[in-house]
Amino acid sequence: MDITLILNGQKKTFSVHAAERLLTVLRRAGCTSVKFGDEQGRSGACTVLLDGKPVNSSVMLAAQAHGHRVTTLEGLGEPGAVHPLQQAFIETGAIQSGYNTPAQILVAKALLDENPNPTEADVREALAGVLDRETGYVKPVQAVLRAAAVLRGESVEPFTPLERAIPIPESFFEFPERPEGFDPGPAIQTRTRPVVVTPPEIATRQIVGRPEPKVDAVKLAMGRPVFTDDIEMRGLLYAAMLTSPHAHARIRHIDASAARALPGVHAVLTHHDLPRVKYASGGQTYPNPLPYDQVSLDDKVRHVGDRVAVVAAETPEIAREALQLIEVEYEVLPAVFDPEEAVEPGAPVIHDEPDTEGIYDRQRNIVHHVEAHEGDAEAQWAKADLIFEGEYRVHQVQQASIEPHVCITYWDEDDRLVVRTSTQVPFHTRRMLAPLIGLPVRRIRVIKPRIGGGFGGKQEMLVEDLCAHLTIATGRPVRFEYTREQEFTSARSRHPQILRFKTGVTREGQVVAAELYILANTGAYGTHGLTVQMVSGFRGLTTYNAPYSRFVCDVAYTNLPTPGAYRGYGAPQALFALEVHMEEIADALGMDVVEFKRKNWIKVGDSMVMARALGEGREGFEQQVRSSALDECVDIGLRTMQWSQKRGRPGDGPIRRGVGMAVAMHGSGIAGLDMGAAAIKINDDGSFNLTVGATDLGTGSDTVLAQIAAEVLGVPLEDILIYSSDTDMTPFDTGAYASSTTYISGGAVFKAAMEVRRQICEHAARYLLPGARPDELDLLDKEVIAPDGRSVSLERVALHSLHQEDQKQIMASASHMSYESPPPFAAQFAEVLVDMETGQVTVQRLVTAVDCGVTINPITASGQVEGGMVQALGYAHCEEMAYDGAGVLLNPRFDDYRIYRANEMPALEVIFVETNEPSGPFGAKAVAEIPKDAIAPALASAIHDATGVWIRELPFTPERVWRALQGQKGSGG
Amino acid sequence: MRKAGAYYRPQTIDEIVRLIAQPYVTTMLLSGGAIQLVRASEDIEAVVDVQAIPELARIAPASDGAPRIGAAASLEAVLRDASTPPLLREAIRRSVPWNRRNAISIAEAIEYPDELPEVNGALLALGATLTFLLPEERQISLAALAADSAQPKLPRKGLIARVELPAPMPRQTWGSAHVARTPADIAIVSAWAVLTLDAAGRVAHASLALTGVWSEPARLAVGAAAALAGAALDDASIAAAGRALESEVAPVADYRGSVEYRRAMAPVLLRRALLACRSRLSE
Ligand code: FES
Asked: Do the chains contact at A890 and B255, CB–CB below 8 Å?
């Protein structure tokens, strides 16, 4: 049937099927700003304006829009010009991956069209329909309010953080009390500007440290086709995957003949069709840790959502229909979900296949067993006057990037396989993919376009092998995207753990010995099972760095969907347990928690006791803390929270108030393992191409890396043209994980830029500034400047070196790795209300004071912290993968899986306390993961402050808190 | 639903009648759609979209002020209409974001009460009545419909014309309370109360609905309401209503809350909803 839309002001006719969704038709029409997030209409990524009103185009028939005005981001403002909303999103740093930016801008447009002067509450209500996994909503709200002012004709100040403030102005510590009432709704006051506290000894620089807009912000704000799925390909086929309905079963028989016979189906692949090549899907450095316990398609399934078969067909609908025609006969096997049961003798053996090597104890489903210790056990335990033990439990949560895993594979003109994929690890993917598909690495090219969020979930090769197999089978380009349900059941998640701490302290409150035992649940496959738990061990034993420390860990297979890498990578689990445990000890000792922790936390100059014993998947390296502002973070945070006025004053009545704190220490890359490389060349006009293998997954790392290059080369940011990442075009990088990009890849950029700078100075001194010595030249404002005041432009140097004399391409590449992983530090605070009758916890305020070294870009860095805080809040408070007794996930949908929306957020505040990390580029450390680490224990601390009850298991759902309160009542406590 | 081969947009109700009378065609009457299109069964062959019939989306109170909400009216339109009772507004605003409010009709909210239990709780407490045009013209209270456990809530070929609420009464008061994981999350348990008092301040009529404590997503608490009838709205009668409620709930556990928890929350939230009623009276 034909429908007519007034699409972005123009009358257009489309031929559609009756059941076709508006989203599909709009994307086919080239409106690729309209994104897909889920099939259930909850993400809002597909928002368009229908007659000016926001609606979700994925849950609307195209035919319903017939005769109506439809506006997508492509139709916003004047053609080619940036609308004030887009401008505000760019300026305020409201764009991270940019995947749902078009949706946010469109709802904002609808709001401002009817209410030019909205309150923050109005803005939050409007944005509530668009789920945001990245920003914490702080900057999008700020952007809309700013755009509203611009559209009203008011003049707005340039957007800058309240930066370089020492001392912090007193006004900062005044916090508007929230309106009375238990339900905060959207009525919060957002303090939208991060504070950067810079000690005077840290130099002010030209580009580094400035809140530069992201280098990719304009294209993202305009909704340009930059994501994996935004290209058009002739002859594209659509893949769909059949997944297991059983938690544990053998495939007795599989018959795909009816599916293959369905018109429009081009290939159906089952385990009969693919070679049995063993691998581990985690995107990790060569050699990937054993065991290689996966094959692309197996005759056994080990969790609900496990791979059974894939189809490639001419439309997604045909592909899905074909799935239903695949006949599978399962022999259902007993399954086990609880790691404590899984390691008991007699439990079902999940990996009974003989060709998997490297399982520690196959019969007991123990894939890894780790034991490591440092120090003199006997001597240290002997010093302990008191020994405290505590058990803590953490659960499974999902990364839930709004862009699902998506991949397009095709043969290029040289018969090389191109893999265009939303990945954090393009180089690992290429290497890992090669043996699975039987092609040499040289015949594979992996292109990473923009990524719509990853958070570790895309540090894994999940869709690329099957997609590639389908292209090999059909000769056609194939697109494979996970459904939202598959994101929950067939992608990765955070490892659930049971953690037991045993800590020895002196009567004076000195921690002298610590042991941590972890029983971790790695689900059906090992993938990141070893490395995540080793990080847990290291993080759990390092903040307080007991002279005797011991880590023991068992990693169990179960029949749950497989956990993997998730931002924080073992630290949020360990630090929840550690920080609560430490506060419990402080309580028991009658010491102030802050002073107890301060007395014990690791200080500058201290060696990290477990650094050598607990590397990542292998032995690590000795490490010392060389920079830390943890003291200052805590002190500033305490003042910001009005701690002394609020702590210990819960009030009485059914609603109690509490404030809590916890501290965190993380790393910057993996010592001795991560490596990044960069290449820089000069262009005729004195601009530079910077190519890096590092993958910006929305974090702003492209911007930060470009800022480092711009600073060294004395040019504005716009003169650095960064490109990342493509295994054919850019140098190697291990990828975006482990908070490594600024520190490791930034180190590579710094080195390459320094070498280019050296070549520029040498050429300029020799030919253009005669008599000057290269080492005394400076690069500033696109000029090479001699001490005597003479100068020559970079353009002149470029033209001269490329065309005129002693011709050469000024260029350099460099690699960087480090045997250090300098820790960023943070203090995180929470203020909560607890309903004593229902157990409902309402989080009112979260504050993070963080030392990430020098903040290369306070806007992108604060966006990282805000977004991380909200993910951490979800972990602590409401997100949870819930299963029935058969291992079926009960909530594989947004909202059921609860992610905070814009209209229910607590106030979020970020304060940077800078240090100068000697080993980091321009003094920088990492910032991406640390905001995830200590929100859960800060919340536990606040709930305890409000109620007197410790809750040692996440998340703090109403029922869990209620049960704890009932227990308190029951025990007369 | 993906196999649907025909889309119709009738201009009149007669046309609807003709369209859904087609034999051997499984038809879906579409209004709004953000829930229907997700939940609709795979066997739908034709879609009859009622958007072009203005009276089906009209919101116009009766002369006595009783709200009359066209069944195809979007939840956003309901939220914004001056005649919508505050209790219903609160339920809609709290539990449905703007994008979805624009594309979910009130009929759809009623058809899928498990998606929007709180909206149904408010409608039940407010005494909503539905007027069907098809298969034959009839009126049925939402409470009666909700009690009929046969799914779906609306017969497939049934056309609901409007939702009617009783006119606001003098000395009427209302209140609600809920518990949820986060402030805008679906309630684990919620209570919705509408009370009419007599001149002596006694409860002349109580309409109490709860979500999350029966297998039905939302249901009237008849026993608790009876316990209040004729009583002054004091602590004793509120406690009595809570006790009555405890004996009539039959929760079903899910991952948001166990049977025990839901059972424990029911009287707590009912009490809070009733206290809200009482404090509104004194405003
Ligand atoms: S893609 Fe439409 S709401 Fe998620």
From this structure: yes
